[in-house]
Amino acid sequence: MTSSHIKVLVVDDQFLIRAGLVGVLKAAPGVEVVGEAGDGAEAVELAASARPDVILMDIRMPGMNGITATERILAEAAEPPPRILVLTTFDLDEYVYGALRAGAAGFLLKDSGPERLLAAVAAVGSGDALFAPSVTRRLVEAFAVRSGAAADAGTPPPDLAALTGRELEVLKLIARGLSNAEIADRLYISEATVKTHLNRTMNKLDLDTRAQAVVIAYETGLVTPGGSGI
């Protein structure tokens, strides 16, 4: 993928919504719609054959839902894996939390306008860590504590003991919704150094997205809902 050309797969079981998304994307320069899917199973097949850079993924669909489809696509994807942007009708949605936990890069409200849709696709398509981090933080705060233990008791959150003190500081601030620039300013280090600490943290914890890092920070108790930063 180049910064001027993003291949997008659109997944939604409602034809009119899907058609509207496709219409907006096709009218945008530098965006190519490489497929449309009406359910999760079809999305998994198209993701493998069309190799999109970004997938707009509906969550609540009959048959295979968006969470399962996200897990399957990311588990089976060749490198580099697609960036999955979850579509939802309301921001505090436990299904969206599950998708972020599974590796989705961010989420977008279905009533967002065309400009916001294109900005989100461009952001995740170019490798930006997360779209609307402050909203994602609210979502994770709402569900991480109660969902973390119950959702997957056989797979506990990773141990944070492998992280250095500075890596823990960066992870805390990421979980609070701060950008790399804001973290750099808070810790008196460069943005490049923030990225280095984040990359090392994600490698040590076997994470793929910044959203997963936020989830882990809450599920391990490194940060707590409503708490302050470091």
Automatic annotation (TrEMBL):
This protein's record includes keyword Phosphoprotein: yes
CDD domains: LuxR_C_like (cd06170), REC_NarL-like (cd17535)
Record key words, sorted: DNA-binding, Phosphoprotein, Transcription, Transcription regulation
Gene3D superfamilies: 3.40.50.2300
Positions of transmembrane segments: none
Ranges of residues in domain Response regulatory: 7-125
4-aspartylphosphate carried by residues: D58
A GO molecular function held by the record: DNA binding
Domain called HTH luxR-type: residue spans: 156-221
Coiled-coil intervals: none
tRNA-binding found in the keyword field: no
Protein name (record): DNA-binding response regulator
